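The records we work with from here on pair a chain with its fold. Taken together, the C-alpha cells spell out the fold as the letters spell out the chain. The record below shows the convention in full.
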Amino acid sequence: MHATTLSQAYPRLEDKLRVDEQYKKNAEANQATLDKYDEVLAKARAGGGEKYTERHLKKGKLLPRERVELLLDQDSHFLELCPIAGYNIAGHSPGSSIIGGIGVVSGVECLVSANDSTIKGGAVSEYGVTKSARLSEIAEQNRLPSIHLTESAGADLPNQSKIFVRGGAAFRDLTRASAQRRPTICLVFGSSTAGGAYIPGMSDYVVMVKEQAQVYLAGPPLVKMATGEESAHEELGGAQMHATMSGVADYLAEDELDAIRLGREIVSHLDWQKAGRLTDRVVEEPYYSPEELIGVASADLKEPFDSRQVIARITDGSRFSEFKPLYGSTLVCGWAHVHGFPVGILANNGILFSESANKGAQFIQLCNQSNTPLLFLQNITGFMVGKEYEQGGIIKNGAKLINAVSNSTVPAITIMTGASYGAGNYAMCGRSYQPRFLYTWPNHRIAVMGGQQLGGVLEIIQRQSAAKKGIEVDEQRISVGKIMIEGQIGKESDPLFASARVWDDGMIDPRDTRSVVAISLSAAYSADVAGTQTWGVFRH
C-alpha cells in the first residue's frame, strides 16, 4: 500500500466544536494558567538572577542555556523536560538548577542536561536529584545517548541528608548506560567537585575546557584539612593535568566553543541508528485547527468535553479509526497517526464502567500485538461505584485494564487533558505506570478525589462517628474542616504544584500537543518498539 493511501485510509472525524461562550471561558481560563506558567518558566530560565549571571559572564563563560543552544543542530527542536521542578518549594529554585530535555545533536536525538552554574555554583538540590533521576530514566527507556554539560559544586551540603543516598543512583545509571552500549558524553566547563567529579569520571567520553575545567573529589581546602597537603587547583584537578597525566579527560578543548564542537564531533562519529522500525508515511496536517484546543479543554472539570474533538486536532488529517464505537462509550479507543507515527489512542469520555474497562484492556492487547505505541488522553474522575456496579464486577474489570496498562511494553505517552482522580489515574497510565512521557494541560487537576468530594466524605464519617458515640455533632467544626480540606486539595491538585514535584514532565500549551507527542514518539523510536503477549491473570 502506498504511503499516501496509508495515511488516508482512516475516516475523518466530524467537527462538532462550537465556539460559544463556554469555549471562550475555557480559552481565557487556560490562557491565564499558561501565562502564570510562562512567568515561572521565565524565572527558571533567568538562572541565579542578574548578579550571578553577570559574575558568570565576567569570567568569560557562556551561560548554561547558551551552551545547550550552541550544542544543538541549528533550527532543530529542544523539548525541555520538568522545567519548573522545585518551584515554590522552600530552598529550591524553579528548574532546580538543572536544564534538561531532548534535542538533536549532529542529527542524533539525545538527552541533553546541563548544570545551571549561576545557581549556587551548580550545586545539586533535593529536587535536582529527582529531576536528574527522571531525565536518566527517560534516556534509558528510550535508548537515547546522553550529553552532560557539567559545572557543579556537587551536592548542596546543608541538605545532604535529602540528597546523598538517592543521589548515588546518578552514577549507577551512567555505568549501566555504558554497559547497555548507550553512549554518555560529558563536557566539563568549570569546577566539578565531589559528586560533580563522578559525572565525567563515569562517562564514556570526556571533554574538558583548558584553564577552566577543574575536576577533583576534594578541592585544595579539603585536601589541606584531610591530609595536610598544599595543592593548587590546576595541579590537583585542572583540565591540562587530566588530559596529560590522569587520563580522566579524553579531549582538551581550547575554550567553551571548542568543547561544544568536540561534543558534536563525538556524536557524529557514533554512527547512531534508531532501533525502532517505522513505515514511511506521508504526513498530513490536521484538517481542523490545533489552535482551537485552547478552548476545547474545560476549565471547569464538571463540564464534560468530547475527547474526539481533541483527537481531531492532533492526528494526521484529523483521521481516526475507532475501535468498538458502540461499546463502552465512556472510553474512546482507536488508531491514528501523529506526524506519520502510528498510535493507538485511549481517551476518556466520562467515568469508567466495566464495559469501557474491558474494551480498553482488549485494545491495549491489540496494540501490543501490532507493536503500536499508545497515547492516553486522560480526563477521568475514576471508576463507577455503587451496589449495581460492584455486583457487576467493576473491581475485576477495572483490574483487567490496569493489568493491561501495567504489562504493556509498547511506548506509552500520557497527556492529562483534565481531571486525574483516584484509580482512574492508574487505569489511564498515570506516572506510577511508567509512560515514556507524561505531560499536563493547564486545566489539569490531580488528587485521590476532588476537594468537595473529599470534604463530603469526611463529613459523613464524622457524623457517623458522632452518632455511634451518641454525641452531638459540632457543626462549626465540620464546616471549618470542609473549607480547610477543600482549600488544601485545591492547592495540592494544581498543575503547577504537580509539575514542581516532577509528577509530570511539564505543562504544555494544548495547541502544542501534536508537536510534543511527535517529538516524544520520535524519541521512543530510538529504542526497539515491541509489544508483548504476556499478561498477568485476568479474573473472569
The mean pLDDT is 90. The radius of gyration is 26 Å.
